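Form 7-S
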Amino acid sequence: MTPTTADPAALTTWKIDPAHSVAEFKVKHMMIANVKGKFSGITGTLALDGIDPAQSTVEATIPMETVSTGDAQRDTHLKSPDFFHADQHPEMQFKSTKIQVKRPGELAVTGDLTIHGVTKTVTFDVEGPTPPHKDPWGNTRVGLEATTKINRKDFGLGWNAALETGGVLVGEEVAITLDVEFIKA
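Output:
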């Protein structure tokens, strides 16, 4: 999908505002409770077709070094070769390949997600983008929320430890939520 089929007058470019955007995740710990974490410093671009949102495209990059779970030791382990190997794979990236309008204000955004050097196709359920709003400094903004679930092993994130009582230390399914604000370029 490319925006070349879109009406050029309807196509606007938006940049992610890293100060007002976050990517969060949650995964089961010891099969009993969720551990939550987040990434900051998200950058990217939305080419938004205001007439036909299905002709829009989105790209985003997340720096792996920004992972934060509220525990410094766990964050260091997540950046290590056991998980993200942030030294060799410093970014997580997403690039849309297809957008479907489910109903007004709700989209299914499919694309290529790259984590740990592995690229897989995933689909995000998206609420938004919101109608444009002017901020107090004259910028025009839109926002959206996107959610999906992935299996971390599909991306080469296979480290785990067996529990004495059965089961594993870290669950395989990871829920991802992105809350993103864009500024009109």
